[in-house]
């Protein structure tokens, strides 16, 4: 049996978009992701790993809905160790999505919430965006000698801080907590305009992900599979 491509996401809505024929999806938060990914690989192995989903913008001017195809994934918890993504996979995605940005991604352990913190991480890393799963995907791929690529859509721009309600609406498993949002709004109703902007940005990111998922599927079936098989 041919080993699968494993696609990794951090949030349930990302996993729903990622699912489809020809791939196995692992959706987990970063504190359990490595073990969950190892468990998914245990039965049949994997041809390679793909980090797929959203990322927070770090580089000024990078807008919601912008695809970022990682050149390096920078493992910030491990002194910004750089994991080079599979060039053939990344180049195939970049050719298929000519508007995508080829840049570094920063892997972090917690959301980067404020504009000041985003600016500081950008100065430190030079990365265009940050997410909480790609560095773990890169670690596991490196440990197993597997090709990997990270393809992420910016969901919030570098210039904008997230309102408290946006974080209150996230459960520990990445799903949405509507009551948490309402409680936060009740405490501070003035954050409503910022929360509505977050919702608009998230809608743009979801639309970009749905379009990009079709492209990734084609590349997984052709160029990705060939590279992973050593052809």
UniProtKB/TrEMBL annotation:
**Cited Pfam families:** PNP_UDP_1 (PF01048)
Q: Which SUPFAM superfamilies does this UniProt record tie to the protein? A: Purine and uridine phosphorylases
Primary enzyme class: hydrolase
Query: What cellular component terms from Gene Ontology apply here?
Result: cytosol
As recorded in UniProt, its EC number(s) are 3.2.2.9
Q: Origin, by domain of life?
A: Bacteria
Annotated protein name in UniProt = 5'-methylthioadenosine/S-adenosylhomocysteine nucleosidase
Q: Which gene encodes it?
A: mtnN_2
